Amino acid sequence: MKLDSMYQDVILDHYKNPHGRGLRDGDAEVHHVNPTCGDEITLRVRLDGDTIEDVSYEGQGCSISQASASVLNELLVGKELAEARRIQETFLHLMQSKGKAEPDDAMEEVLEDAIAFAGVSKYPARVKCALLSWMAWKDATAQALGETAGGKTA
Amino acid sequence: MKLDSMYQDVILDHYKNPHGRGLRDGDAEVHHVNPTCGDEITLRVRLDGDTIEDVSYEGQGCSISQASASVLNELLVGKELAEARRIQETFLHLMQSKGKAEPDDAMEEVLEDAIAFAGVSKYPARVKCALLSWMAWKDATAQALGETAGGKTA
Amino acid sequence: MTQLPGLLDTEAIRKDFPILDRVVHDGKKLVYLDNAATSQKPRQVLDVLNDYYERSNANVHRGVHMLAEEATELYEGARDKVAAFINAPSRDEVIFTKNASESLNLVANMLGWADEPYRVDQDTEIVITEMEHHSNIVPWQLLSQRTGAKLKWFGLTEDGRLDLSEIEQVITEKTKVVSFVLVSNILGTVNPVEAIVRRAQDVGALVVIDASQAAPHMLLDVQALQADFVAFTGHKMCGPTGIGVLWGRQELLEDLPPFLGGGEMIETVSMHSSTYAPAPHKFEAGTPPIAQAVGLGAAVDYLTAIGMDNITRHEHALTHYAVGRLLEVPDLRIIGPTTAEERGATISFTLGDIHPHDVGQVLDEQGIAVRVGHHCARPVCLRYGIPATTRASFYLYSTPAEVDALVEGLEHVRNFFG
Amino acid sequence: MTQLPGLLDTEAIRKDFPILDRVVHDGKKLVYLDNAATSQKPRQVLDVLNDYYERSNANVHRGVHMLAEEATELYEGARDKVAAFINAPSRDEVIFTKNASESLNLVANMLGWADEPYRVDQDTEIVITEMEHHSNIVPWQLLSQRTGAKLKWFGLTEDGRLDLSEIEQVITEKTKVVSFVLVSNILGTVNPVEAIVRRAQDVGALVVIDASQAAPHMLLDVQALQADFVAFTGHKMCGPTGIGVLWGRQELLEDLPPFLGGGEMIETVSMHSSTYAPAPHKFEAGTPPIAQAVGLGAAVDYLTAIGMDNITRHEHALTHYAVGRLLEVPDLRIIGPTTAEERGATISFTLGDIHPHDVGQVLDEQGIAVRVGHHCARPVCLRYGIPATTRASFYLYSTPAEVDALVEGLEHVRNFFG
Ligand SMILES: Cc1ncc(COP(=O)(O)O)c(C=O)c1O
Ligand SMILES: Cc1ncc(COP(=O)(O)O)c(C=O)c1O
Q1: What residues does the Aminotransferase class V domain cover (chains C, D) (predicted)?
Q2: Which homologous superfamily does the CATH classification assign to the domain defined by D10-32+307-417?
């Protein structure tokens, strides 16, 4: 069944047992909304120099957006910023591929569990769900580093 | 040729040699515009009791609107108001008939030269041209009789 | 096949709608239950659109040539049809807009720029309800911000109805305008027009009715409603996209100022000043959606031929059946009235804690098209403490078999996320 | 058959336009010379419209079901096409409206409600020209009345061009916005964009260009124009009625306030306040003209395949020929430039003292469709002391034979009223 390509077991697992959910101390907080469906996330980043010490979050949304935040937490916490950015960009690229990017070993090595979202990229309405937490993380990190004035974007 | 049904000789004659054109003293003046084509008329009515003493006018417009004002002058000046209203209503009825009213002898007796406009009623865009001066006359008469506060309508 | 009293001959009707034959996702028959978002279009409407473009297309009102006369006659003929459809006292009270949202914004802007006694300003109040579509909230929020007028609203009861218990406190002598939805696009609720109109009239407030979800489904009689303005949208009632209607009482349309300026809406223009054409043209700046109005006229013909009362009866029977069947689904909670009384054929629900997005996705895979989200009525979701709903909405071509397909589909959803 | 250099293969092109085969008034072949009012539509556009409704019709943006995804992709795909057609730096700068008039009103309203530095108020000035279409006059008159800003304008020279001799006095440090037409719909004049834009930029004024009569006929490059806003309308460029475009610079669209409020344009709504989606959605309240945008996308494809430069060349050759032939007609006076240089394929004229209405009527009888009146540009008629003009306007399917038919027709008019 085609649906299984979106709802991979990995995704459903993260949805049912999310990693690192809940709001903890952070250097910056953002609130992002997906206006087309109302999914929301509040996300905080705590940095220790160039290292991501914590990404904590709270939100409501579908399995895809929730699982994606969970995977993000699992993947990024403990990483160096440069490495985290590479992961974020690779994930963005995959999600915008309209189901055309063939995940290879190299990509899988970078994305780990997040590779499971490859199937989601075939569903334009759901791509934004998968990206919600990642965009929030990017924004919060920029704020934590003092690069922007803050504020939310959709 | 079908056009001849609109451009009757009577109409072209009135167009080339208009009756009673020019502005003279009146009890009320109105200015009417046909917004769809820009035809304009300024028209004055002078009453003597129930009798129409004069209808004077100035304006710009196509042959139909100019000829119609000329016919109006010829027909209404000297008439009692009640009779004039009957003529106006008959003319209105004819013009709104979409070419379907068959002018009969009775109608012809009322409308005289104005019966020549029967063909115009087949051309929706021109009906307003033919009616411009008649609507102005109706409005000016109402004003002269103190029935309205004045002002222009289209 | 389930037989319900009052159903239309959907077998015949469905033949008019080419899209209903579509097959999606490897051979699944389309079950289109997203009619509150937009309806499908019968061949009769598409043919009229095509004919218009292939035979009579021209700009309206200003031409002496044959095509321009035909186009004008078709366009103005559509106005006659719509006027008759809503029992308007005069055809000149029917304004064509691009959608219901423009219609509602048009009223809000007219009132913001109006002279007394209509003017909305900082000493006045605007009343809406908590079940409005965003298109009947945001224009009033903008008007309130821009004029200083106070925005108030009726709240909702637990079972999805307007809470009118404090109507005298909500609608007061300060109220200039009361704007509310006739049939909710999320709850399905049909609102009690008379009670609200009576109170509004008592205090001299204007009444605006958002009939976007009513016009497609029931006989709309603007005189019986006793409103001052009624707005609705073509695409939900078998018409094309890009066309909406605002009906307004003639004397108001005469008194109120224009909104958009431009060609068609003027009487005479000089560089120094302009005067405006009488309504409806005063409110139709620029080349109107000509083909779309003509298409809406054809839609109105189509609906009238079937009979609005028959459509209402059909949908009522279907809603009764659907509510019953849905309530059999474990963990399913209907948001809105749980009977078919005083409600339209739009049913919102939640399914346990499965997010509506996921519900919709799994239904789609089975060919069942529903809408998920807040349905442009987010305050309703906030009110009931839910992030979103799944919404199934029916129309004249919907069948009991499609209700059954939905219920089966939901079972499948439950298994999938179980 | 007259052979002119640069003509398109009209024989092939005309086959795409079903209406051009129409026969009017007892066997006369239609000669459609009313393209400045609206263009005809090729089969390629009508097919796309039909396909949309028969296969993919759904409301956009909010659906997880297949039709909603298809409709959204088609609608947003049309935005991509339009963005490419006008060389927009970003697709998000393309706003779909219902027509050019709405686009221009949208800008005027944004500026009226804007904060500094954009706000138009009683200390500021608005500049337009005497050759504007009413749709680019009345919105600014309304804005001026409602804010107290002063409305100024460029006059016209005897030969139908903008009089820019006093540009420094017209556009001053007080000027907040300069709005002008790229190609006049009555005179045919192509205006010198650069000179105006340079002066406007010097004083920090925003520039709005009404490209309604340009987009159908020439390569439009919003970056080369250096304007801040560019408006045009779909129905004049082979697209459906009911669709217009406003292009605006991204940072302006971010900074400026919304105009119409409603569904689709919001980020999040509560009863107390709302936030707005980023552009272009911020300016697209309600269900957009979905099918019409998709149809406009198809029109853009059609025009691009033929090549905008080829269309310009075709029309230029035809205009050159038509101006020459018309000037042979006794008593004919062209209102506007009397050569084909810096002018479009729209030619207005008077014929002795025969009223244009009568000219148009007699031409119509011969199957020739022209427009008569003030063409929604009454100040131009006032300027040249005439009540109205007869206007012939050509497009990519127009032929030299049609010019000949017009000239013959005018001879007939002269005889008729002679
Ligand atoms: C120069 C110009 N500007 C604006 C418009 C208005 O376009 P629309 O009527 O489609 O709004 C037109 C055409 O009518 C035009 O020719
Ligand atoms: C109740 C209600 N009001 C207003 C609207 C707005 O209609 P449109 O999007 O056509 O402007 C809708 C539908 O979207 C609606 O359901």
Answers
A1: 31-406
A2: Aspartate Aminotransferase, domain 1 (3.90.1150.10)
Residue whose CB lies within 8 A of the most ligand 1 atoms, among D35, D97, D101, D296, for a mutation test: D101
The ipTM, to two decimals, is: 0.94
**A abuts B (3+ Cβ pairs < 8 Å):** no
C105–D137 CB contact, under 8 Å: no
- The residue of chain A with its CA nearest to that of D70 is A124
Task: Count CB neighbours of C322 within 10 A.
Answer: 26
Determine what percent of chain D is predicted with pLDDT higher than 90: 96
Q: Which CATH class is domain A3-144?
A: alpha beta
CATH of domain C46-304: 3.40.640.10
Q: Are strands B28-34 and C229-233 parallel, antiparallel or unpaired?
A: unpaired
Does residue C19 sit in helix, strand or coil? helix
Quickly state the pLDDT bin for A98 (edges 50, 70, 90): confident
Contact in structure between D100 and D215 (CB atoms under 8 Å): no
Give the global pTM.
0.95
Chosen for mutation from C74, C265, C267 (greatest number of chain B CBs closer than 10 Å) is C267
How far does CA C325 lie from the centroid of its chain? 27
Instruction: Give me the residue spans of the domains in chain B.
Output: 3-144
Residue indicated by tokens 């989606």: D277
**CA A53 from centre of chain:** 16
Distances (CA, A) of C376 to A17, C130, C139, D286: 31, 12, 13, 10
Residues of C labelled as active-site residues: 376
pLDDT in tens, D5-23: 899 999 999 999 999 999 9
Pocket test for ligand 2, best of C233, C236, C292 (most atoms within 8 A of CB): C233
Disruptive mutation site among A3, A39, A40, A126 for chain C (greatest number of C CBs within 10 Å): A3
Interchain contact, B12 vs D417, CB within 8 Å: yes
Task: With beta carbons less than 8 A apart as the criterion, state whether D371 and D34 touch.
Answer: yes
- Nearest CB to B124; choose among C69, C267, C278: C69
Q: Using one digit for the tens of pLDDT, what is the confidence trace for C168-219?
A: 999 999 999 999 999 999 999 999 999 999 999 999 999 999 999 999 999 9
